[in-house]
Amino acid sequence: MPSFTPQTYQLLKEASIQSLSIQPNPSQWVILKDPSRNKVISGGERAGKSATGGWEGFGHHIAESTLSPNEPSLYWLIGEDYEQCRGEFQYLLDYFTEVDLIAKNGIHFPREDQAILVTRMGGRFETKTAHDPRKLGVRAPNGIIGCEVGLWTPETWLRSRGRVAEKRGWQYLSGSFEYSFTTFFDMWTMGQSNNNRSVKSFSLPTYSNIAIYPGGINDPEILALKDWYPPDRFAERFEGIPSRPSGLVFKLASEQLHIQPLEFDPDKPVQLWVDPGFTHAYAVLCVQLYGRDVHVFDLIYVNRHTHSQIVDLCSRAPWWRSVDRVVMDRAGRQKNANGESAEQVWRKEGHKHIRTNYVKILDGIDRINSFLLPNAATGHPSVLIAPRCKGLLCELGIGPPPDGFRNMKAWRYPPDHGGHLASPLPLDEYNDACKALAYGLVDNFGYADDTRPPLGPMNYIKSSAQVDKLFPETPRQLGAWTRQAVPPSRSGLWQKPLTPESKRVKI
User: Fold this and answer.
1) 384 lies in a domain?
2) In a shared domain, residues 87 and 167
3) Which of the four, 35, 175, 296, 307, has the lowest number of CB atoms within 10 Å?
4) In angstroms, how far is CA 22 from the centroid of its own chain?
């Protein structure tokens, strides 16, 4: 533990940063001068969060080495992969090069996915991958720079905090709110008020980078972006402020409620719930049922794989011999270029108990929501999902994207230019695992109770209040318009009407 006062430490840290030729802007100084052990930084695009992380690591090392010269220091840069750490590592390299404090032969690249910097003061900066949190080792770093922590799993957050406990170390954890419903969102929210975890959170907006946007918040380009983007997207991408998008399909999904460390039970049968794909994801949910409780303990989620390749992946898994039912999309009957359907390929492998289902999108959403909803008596939901099922968790909006799907987002309703919902039907993307979940739930438990009035060609909805009741996610005041409802399979777009008297919107 340090034998010097926090005030002395902080003064040395700030003085070391001030010795560099490139100085932080006022928004960055607010972060660097804060003494909190655990800093959570949400940055807008090109806001300078990587540069700030470099200053944070540089300042801490100079202060620690000056006050405790006989205690070699260790620091980790943790990202989903090396690319996520590249920016912070480069800034550290630049800062230590400027003051000539890099040791002889002090830059190493042991593997193509790792970089190491050793200083003349005995400090060591190592990049680490968060891909497998178990490999974060047993060594105790003095501090951790977290890179793009919005992609971290809950387990990585726990491991990172545990590693700095021995030396009472610090954490600088930065990212962007591309995925606002993960632990990053929770930690940032916690850090906005006093708490007992020494967590302080900051927003680093894009316009604070006056080198790129000299006009700050009133820079013409920033004003143009604000006019172009829906309010929630602008807040997330350029202000570093989280806001739950109005278009999220599964608002009931919760990291705390629905993610549990599930494992395969060899004494129980396994069901595979399948949504075939090629250019989009081929999703295979591995499920075990405990009465009405559904445990999704594993998931195969890949693209550009044939049916045979998927079956081959499944056959290598320890649960393969326990599979007693396969439920898949009715589209699995469609034949590919080789003249075989997904159903035929799976049957050839010995799985004769294959059921194909067609579930309408809205009916599937209702069925999933009924299982996400906590039981009134127990407080527990009827579906639990293992952390390894990243594809499903990302689609639900409670986890980062899986490997190979870096640009993936949660399943959402389409917004219009003003950020309102443009349709009562969600986008047909980022929903493959969710569709597989719907097929399996309906196959095993039937449809959810549906209290909505029937929609059909002859059903006319004559007031906006009726529409708002049917589709509460649609935050628009449509006035006394006449609307005609048609089956969602025929059309899913709100059509712009011509005149107030003849306005008809297809649902």
Assistant:
1) yes
2) yes
3) 35
4) 33
Distance of alpha carbon 465 from alpha carbon 469, whole angstroms: 6
173: domain CATH number?
Answer: 3.40.50.300
User: Which amino acid is it at 315?
Assistant: S
Domain boundary among 396, 416, 445: 445
* pTM of the predicted model over 0.70: no
Host domain of residue 504:
452-507
The DSSP letter of residue 248 is B
CA distance 300 to 91: 38
**Residue carrying the six token digits 């069925």:** 367
pLDDT in single tens digits along all 507 residues of the chain: 445 688 999 999 999 999 999 999 999 999 999 999 999 999 998 899 999 999 999 999 999 999 998 888 999 999 988 888 999 999 999 999 999 999 999 999 988 778 999 999 999 999 998 877 777 777 899 999 999 898 887 788 888 999 999 999 999 999 987 554 567 888 888 899 888 888 999 999 999 999 999 999 999 999 999 888 877 778 888 998 876 555 789 988 988 889 999 999 999 999 999 999 888 899 999 999 999 999 999 999 999 998 889 999 999 999 999 999 999 987 766 666 566 788 888 888 766 688 887 898 989 999 999 999 988 778 899 999 999 999 999 999 888 788 788 778 889 888 765 555 667 789 899 999 999 999 999 999 998 855 433 333 323 333 334 434 444 443 333 333 333 333 333 333 333 333 333 333 332
Question: Are 440 and 468 members of one domain?
Answer: no
Residue 435 lies in a domain: yes
Tell me, yes or no, whether 378 and 404 share the same domain.
yes
By DSSP bridging, strand 293-302 and strand 282-290 are antiparallel
Let me know whether 123 and 27 are in one domain: yes
Domain check: are 224 and 288 in the same one? no
Does a structural domain hold residue 417?
yes
